[in-house]
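Quick entry, no commentary yet.
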Amino acid sequence: MQTDVARRRLRELILDGAYPPGARLTEMEVAAALDMSRTPVREALRALAADGLVRPSGRGVVVVALEQGDLDEAYQVRAALEALTAELAATRQREGRIAPADLAALREIAIDTATATAEGRLA
């Protein structure tokens, strides 16, 4: 669905810093940047506002600055999920229930996540 694609891409751009805190975004600008129509972008912006990543401001939205406490909580949740994922993968590997390609994919995700963390981004 176009709205899901727009939401995911816009979320990535915000979290990667392409749209920094305080940046003002309009439907037209984002639609042009994502090469999409305005309708899925409008819905994506509404969803991101509900998520707390942007806030409505006049004829567009403004990217919010995440508070340090919010970032700390996000990293704690991510760390817990990573630990659980590693535990499940290890169990499945011992039991022969994980394909080598899937294990390699998990390693790549772990590397990407570690890189994002080192760069101060939320992966």
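second:
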Amino acid sequence: MSRKNRPDTDVIHLGRHPEEQKGAVNPPVYHASTVLFPTLDTIEAAQRPSDDPRRMVYGRRGTPTSFALSEAVAGIEGGAGCAITPSGLAAVAIALLAVLQSGDHLLMVDTVYGPTRNLCNGMLRKLGIETTYYDPLAGAGIATLIRPNTRAIFMESPGSLTFEVQDVPAIVGAAKAADHEVVTLIDNTWASPYFFKPILLGVDVSIQAGTKYIVGHSDAMLGTVSANEAVFPRIEKAAGDLGILTGPDDMYLAQRGLRTLAVRLARHQETGIALARWLQARPEVKRVLHPALAEDPGHALWKRDFTGASGLFGALLHPISRDKLAAFLDGLECFGMGWSWGGYESLCIPQHPEKLRTARPWTEDGPLLRFHAGLEDVADLIEDLEAGFARMAAA
């Protein structure tokens, strides 16, 4: 496996400003709105541009709590900076609003996260921004879809629900070859920047729902938008102009999650692959959708560009009745049914990509289940699924 986008170190650095921490291991949690200035000179200086990224002028503009988190995330992303938002969807919205304006054209991958599609079809359309959904497997062929007014290409790899792996370098190459600026963005939540570093492959903007693996404990909402030196000032300005602010306690929980990101992802990966291989052998399963499996259509691209896999994958069952599906799902004890993922708990929910796709319709028959492998013992998880299949057969 290629290691070219491996982090220089597995240590997540937080709190590299000991003068603000007075020896404490963790960065301080600042609950702040007003910041006081002792003199007229200092308050006037605070209103002038500054090269100091950690300057405190007002709570909304940043505190040592937000500075520590944004610096750490930018560091593992390989970006020039990072904006912290209250959710993953807010991160997507900030990024798109930062690089698009009325009259622009957006190329959006057809396998994108559902709420991102809603944003494109709703708010962006009202603002006069046109969206074209493209086949996630387009690769370099996306060049034929770039128009004179195309200003951004948005990727998500692997894709939501169906886990197609995109040829990110080929798409970036097509964007850079255009005769006008085309900004490339990617939702990098599945792998996190620990297993995939799109900015180092030439992508301009890397977005995460930090709610998932960065927070990692299902107890806080968070988003991150990291960008290269050319684009980050636009991201930072958009976040500031819109007054986007994340609570200090949620940022503290994200800092805590970052410290264990490496060890948690190793466990999620190990358990996810074990479950995927076990499901491959089940007669009830038509196909497992997991790019780390050699049989997966996206495996070669995943192996080339990624350094690991998360715990999220899909399994397509052979056609069954709703009653049989309910018998399988309703009695699960280790797997919960609920939205989101990335926490310590395993999840299993039915998905319906056929209701969303337009450029690459989903035509497979049979229920599609999305699994998230949590941190429980894999033997317990397999026993739970085995009992579910037994209930399915008996229903």
